[in-house]
Specification:
This protein has eleven helices and ten strands. The chain is an alpha/beta fold. The chain folds into three domains: 125 residues, Tetrapyrrole methylase, N-terminal domain (Cobalt-precorrin-4 Transmethylase, domain 1); 111 residues, Methyltransferase, Cobalt-precorrin-4 Transmethylase, Domain 2 (2-Layer Sandwich); 43 residues. The strands form two sheets. Strands 3-2-4-1-5 form a five-stranded parallel beta sheet, sandwiched between helices. It has a five-stranded mixed beta sheet with strand order 6-7-10-8-9. S-adenosylmethionine (SAM) binds next to helix 5, strand 7, strand 8 and strand 10.
Length: 304
């Protein structure tokens, strides 16, 4: 920490400032984020109403500044305006809807264009839902992999999960309340029901809730809540603990193979699953053959 920086700055330096904003609690904003929103020559945001509301809550006046909308759908039009301001040596603050811009949020294109044009890019760090969830989960934090949102369709989701099954790290996913039940079922099927898991919901908000257990337990808890007529709502992060060294659940192997077999040949599926789960190819090929036999769909696809 640099104590000389403890006072508010007189001016905001030129360049693009990526400002993290609250993921729920309005007071989860740093003093520096407020300084930058107050002092930047131009403020841009994914949602202009939202940033104006946040600025009002914290007593920041627009002071005649225009607030520019910048999101995935208008980046082609709004980007050049922001880059022109940067080229004039102005300071531009950019905030996404919640948390840190670029983390499952817009901003990457703008950052790349600013870098390419030689403009300074500054981080104004703050909340990130994935990290807030990781800190309360009680799962290993020494290695984690942020996987964002999984595909919406089950087959694609299972393939994506199979790729992650052997990663020796805590996995972090964003999930929507509409899909949480099916997503957890796919996670249990592909990663193994015994993997420790946590669902962190509405963090920093009034209905904050953290469910801890394993994937099998979470599947049951979420299903039971639906049955009681109070399904889980709001914003949620799912975390899955790393696989136990050297132990991959037989069901997990079968599920990963089943997912792979839906889009690949038997040989490719066996190779993909073996490499992903770091298991011997021959063993997985035999298992794939067995599965085919059980399904009564023939014994071989002529490979190997
Ligand atoms: N840029 C954001 C960040 O830094 O956290 C993430 C934006 S992403 C579009 C939104 C997702 O983040 C939600 O669907 C949910 O998975 C997660 N999220 C955001 N706020 C949350 C909260 N208060 N509690 C739990 N999850 C949250």
């Amino acid at each position: 920490m640099d104590e000389t920086d403890a006072k508010p700055p007189r001016t905001i330096p030129p360049g693009l400032h990526l400002v993290a904003t609250p993921i729920g609690h309005a007071r989860d904003i740093t003093l520096r984020a407020l300084d930058v929103l107050r002092g930047a020559d131009l403020v841009a945001a994914e949602d202009t109403r939202r940033i104006r509301r946040l600025m009002t809550i914290h007593g920041i006046a627009r002071a005649g500044r225009e607030i520019v909308a910048y999101h995935d759908h208008n980046a082609g039009r709004a980007g050049p305006r922001l880059l022109a301001a940067l080229a004039e040596g102005r300071s531009v603050a950019y905030a996404s809807d919640a948390g840190t811009p670029l983390v499952a949020d817009p901003g990457l294109r703008l950052v790349r264009e600013a870098i390419a044009a030689g403009h300074p890019v500054h981080a104004v760090p703050g909340p990130v839902a994935a990290i807030a969830a990781l800190t309360v989960a009680g799962l290993p934090t020494d290695r984690f992999l942020f996987a964002g949102f999984l595909p919406a369709r089950s087959a694609a989701r299972r393939t994506a999960l199979a790729e992650l099954a052997a990663v020796p790290a805590t996995l972090i996913f964003h999930e929507s309340p509409h899909r949480i039940g099916e997503a957890l079922r796919d996670m249990a099927a592909v990663l193994g029901a015994a993997r420790p898991a946590v669902l962190a919901r509405e963090l920093t908000k009034r209905h904050e809730e953290v469910l801890r257990g394993d994937l099998g337990v979470l599947v049951e808890q979420v299903a039971a809540r639906g049955g009681e007529g109070r399904p889980l709502k709001g914003e949620m992060v799912v975390l899955v603990g790393p696989p136990m060294a050297g132990r991959v659940d037989e069901t997990a192997i079968e599920q990963a193979l089943a997912a792979a077999l839906s889009s690949m040949s038997l040989k490719d599926s066996a190779r993909f699953v073996a490499d992903t789960l770091k298991l011997p190819r021959k063993r997985i090929y035999q298992k794939a053959l067995e599965m085919r036999r059980r399904q009564g769909e023939g014994t071989d696809d002529g490979n190997e």
